[in-house]
Amino acid sequence: MRVCPNCKSSENRLRIKEKEFLVVECNSCGLVYLLNPPDESVIYEDYYQIEFKGTDYRGDSNYPHLREIFEINKQRTELIKEITKGKADLSLLDIGCGSGLFLKSCKDEGINGEGIDVSNTALGFAGNEFGLSVYNKRVEELISENRKYDMITLWHVLEHFLEPIEELKKIKELLTPDGILLIEVPNLKSIKFRLSGHKWKGGNHPLYHRSFFTSRTLMNTLSESGFNKAERLKFTYRLSNKGYLYNLSKKVFNTFAADAFLNFAARNGNE
Ligand SMILES: [Zn+2]
Fold it and tell me: Is the dihedral of CA 72, 177, 172, 214 positive or negative?
C-alpha cells in the first residue's frame, strides 16, 4: 500500500470510500490522499471532452460553463498582473494547461505564456483554436532545456500529482530567482466539501485526484518542497451570474480558509 506522500508514514484512517477507491487521512501529518491510485498512463487522454470552438470562449458565450471559466480566468490574469506589478515581458508557464483557456485569457491581456500538458487532444485544441505555444512535455524536459519562468501556474493540477513534493521540487528549478509559483486546489475544509462530502465533484474525483489539501497540509507540502516563502492568498472569484450574497459569502468563508478553492503564492526565494 502507498505511504503518505507528505511524510512517508504508513499509518492512516479511512476518510472516503468510493467504488474501489480509498481516500485516507495520514495519522502523522494529516494529509488526505488516495491510497490506491489507478495507472496514470491510461486515464488522461479521456480527461478532456471538448465540445465547443475557440470562438465560443468569451464573456457572453452561449455556453454557461464557458462564461464562468472566462470570468475566472480573467480574474486569474488580473491577479497575476497585480502580483507581478505589471512586469513587462513576463515569462509564464502554465503546467497542466489543458485546452488553453487560461493561456488564451493571458494572451488577450498581453501576457504570452507557454503551456504543457499530457493530453494531445487538449493541446491540439489550444494550438489550433487559439494559436498558443503549448507542448506535450514534462517538467524534466524543460529543466534539461534550461528554461526559466517568472511565473508558473498550477490551476487545479497539484492534487493530480502522485508525488506532489517531488514535482514541486522540480518545478522550483524552472523559476527565475525571484519567480513565483501560483497554486489553486480544491479545499478539503471548504463548506462545499463538508456539506456534500464525496459527492462534490469539484473536490472528490478519486480517479484523478490523489491529494486532498487543507490550507495547513498544502503549506506543509510547499515547505517540504523548499518553498519557504509561501502564503495563502485570500482570493475569491466574483461570479456575475451568482448574485451579491453568494459572492459575499465566498469572501467570508475565505477569511477562515473555507471557500471552495485554496490559492497559494510561493516565491522561489533564491534572490
Ligand atoms: Zn503524512
Answer: negative
> Between these two residues, 270 and 149, which has the higher pLDDT value?
149
Q: Give the Å distance between the CA of 12 and the centre of ligand 1.
A: 8
User: Which has the closest alpha carbon to 65: 96, 95, 101, 103?
Assistant: 101
Distance from the CA of 129 to the center of ligand 1, in angstroms? 42
Q: How far is the CA of 8 from the centre of ligand 1 (A)?
A: 6
pLDDT in tens, 11-61: 999 998 888 889 999 999 999 999 999 877 667 777 777 889 999 999 999
Q: Which of 162, 163, 183, 186 is nearest to 227 (CA)?
A: 183
Taking a C-beta distance cutoff of 8 angstroms, is the pair 128, 121 a contact? no
Q: How many Cα atoms are found within 13 Å in the side-chain-facing hemisphere of 65?
A: 4
Report pLDDT digits (tens) over 17-31: 888 889 999 999 999
* Distance of CA 32 from the midpoint of ligand 1 (Å): 8
Say if CB 265 and CB 80 are below 8 A apart: no
What is the reported pTM? 0.93
Of 9, 17, 35, which Cα lies nearest the Cα of 162? 35
28 C-alpha to ligand 1 centroid (Å)? 5
